[in-house]
Amino acid sequence: MKLFRWAAWVFGWISVLTSPSLIAQEALPIPEPPFTGTVDIDARRSTPAWATAVTAPQGAPNIILILVDDVGFSATSAFGGPIETPAFAALAKSGLRYNGFHVNAYCSPTRAALLSGRNAHQIGFGAIAERAAGFPGYNSLWPKSAASVAEVLRDDGYNTAAFGKWHNTPVWQISAAGPFDRWPAGLGFEYFYGFLGAADNQYYPHLYRNTTPVEPATRPEQGYNLTDDITKDAIRWLHDQDAADPDKPFFLYFATGATHEPHQVPKNWIAKYQGKFDAGWDKLREENFARQKQLGVIPANAKLTPRPEGLPAWDSLSAGEKKLVAHEAEVYAAYAAQADYDVGRILQAVDDEGKKENTVVVWIFGDNGASAEGGPTGRDAIDIAGNPKSVSERLTTIDELGSEAFLNHYAAAWAWALSAPFQGTKVDSSHLGGTTDPLVISWPKRIKDAGGIRSQFGHVNDIAPTLYELAGIKAPATVDGVPQIPLEGTSLVYTFDHPEEPSRHHVQYFATSGNRAIYKDGWWAGDLVRSTWEPSRTPPGTDPQGPQDYDVHPWQLYDLNSDYSQSNNLAEKYPEKLKELQALFDEEAKRNQVYPLLPAAGDIPSGRRADQNTFIYQDGVDRLNGRLGPNLDGRAYTIDADVHIPAPGTTGVIFSRGGRYGGSSLFVKNNRVIYEVNAFGSRAGQMISSDPLPTGRVHVRVEITPANGGQHANAATDGTRTVLPGSGKLFVNGKQSGEGSFLNLHGTGTGVDIGSNLGSEVSSEYHAPNHFTGEIEQVTIRVQ
After folding, report:
1. Which of 237, 286, 475, 673 has a CA positioned 20 to 30 A from the CA of residue 350?
2. pLDDT digit string, tens, across residues 444-472
3. Which CATH number do you get for residue 533?
4. Structural domains of the chain, count
């Protein structure tokens, strides 16, 4: 019997070791090994055996991948900027700084390439998720043929978690109905805590834990802040992993909402930068450039490119304008500094656990260049029609920048200043200012040239193969039986020990919003549609026979081997080289699903039927994606609510849509039912029932009729809007009980809640969430 058991054991392990599915781990997930014990009717003649869990390769490091949002190349102190980033600088001192690392000039495309190792268009992210279009390169439908880094590491023995901004789920799939296979949890992350969209309020975020919507534990007046919240949750997760299995490696992806608009940060951080930007953006850019050369993060022969047309000189501003925009920069700097501090807390937690030595940290300080989307003087206070208020009016509320009062953004020229020495900003994929961001890689156990600088060309799609090599694993050929698209990136590990070795990443295309470029072995050719601060000249599709935007500018050509900052356009000098690169771009564009260059957005599936005009909700529905709910903007509609009022004094929200920056709410206060519309943060209309509400079953009806055939505002030639009046009636149990005028029926709110108002409140008449203390049978909304 012993001989039989020994033979069975040997045969079982021979089967495991020779199984083709385990060779080089080319197929994931790794199948469970066969049972190697023996089974007999009699337990005394049976031998138990346990399946061996999948484990990471011996000595595999922990991995922390950090991505900060909307940061220019010269913003951080580690790369010559004015914003103190001691955690980033300390990591750079212990690791390597890369000054030739490139991103995709836009949020979702960078994240898709980062987490997959492929080009963004290959997996449907040629645009941000909110601007998806019905073409393979733009549909935001991450394919099964491109497993994420988290999927691969998880199936190879890592624990995985993601915190903060995601921005790679189709917008119409963000609901309780899913599907969830393109949420973080469906793409390899065993745990997720954060938000799914492009940006979120730092004080009233729309958070999810895994696939469940959750609300912050505290409110802004109690000190709540999103970056602080996700940091605490990430540290808690690290401590849980250490307590449960300290030897199992982890992969932690931490992507801040900072520094994307809204620029919201506590006042104590803002105070640290008071007066630091009073000299203006022209002077700041020169100072950044000088510091960069002193630090050696740019070549000694690099040239500072001039301010582009369309951005004003600092000295051309009025005193009031200077005061306003200088404070905007103070707020932004504080926002970035806080993000650095909180990442530092995570790294300190790893050090406290004794795991710093064998933890790889990859920190990219920007998913695209600095954002110039704030316009000439930034953005904060707006009027009821959505127009920016005058500078003099905005100065009266200047101290509220950074608070929950505004969804504020800084002036475009700050983005240019913080991109030194390059041309271009966010969305401009034809220039380095939109596509170059600081990268630091640290691994104390492996990297010996601490504080070194690396200048090889790198791209965000290089990170996945880098992590695989560091972890000692191979990118799989199949995952869940699906053949995988080959990786596009090239591992950067060769740069660790060979600072002068030529780049192994030879060709890379860039394409965002019609802007495009191609890199090949030091040469760069690019075509700019328009800078962010410029108006669109030729809307795509306006004239089917005429040129589109991408035809209006000549291509430019640069030799980055001798011209680090793109200061010398060589298109006229080397026309044949330009033609060669243009042909290469066309080849790469076709291979990667880049065409059409400017697909029209707006045909994104909404999640609702195209002909749906009736929406019925039961009590308890909350955080319903606005794309699934009714579109009330500029429309005639009715709201019918059947509720039960148990006693006088019943209060709370029956129906709400949106929050303090725009929306509508039907609620009960002081025994009266109230309907209020909020447009861009201002009350745009309110109706209050004339009689106290009776107890028992009550039917409430709201009727809204817009003026001028449904138009809610007129747009002037200069882009400003004029509000138009509309009217409303309020009924209780079939009897008219109120009426009102609504100056602007553009609600701007998105998410729908029944029985509460989650997030920020639509009306100043109550504090969120203001749960309804009665009972709600049903709310029906009909849109004409």
Report:
1. 475
2. 999 999 999 999 999 999 999 999 999 99
3. 3.30.1120.10
4. 4
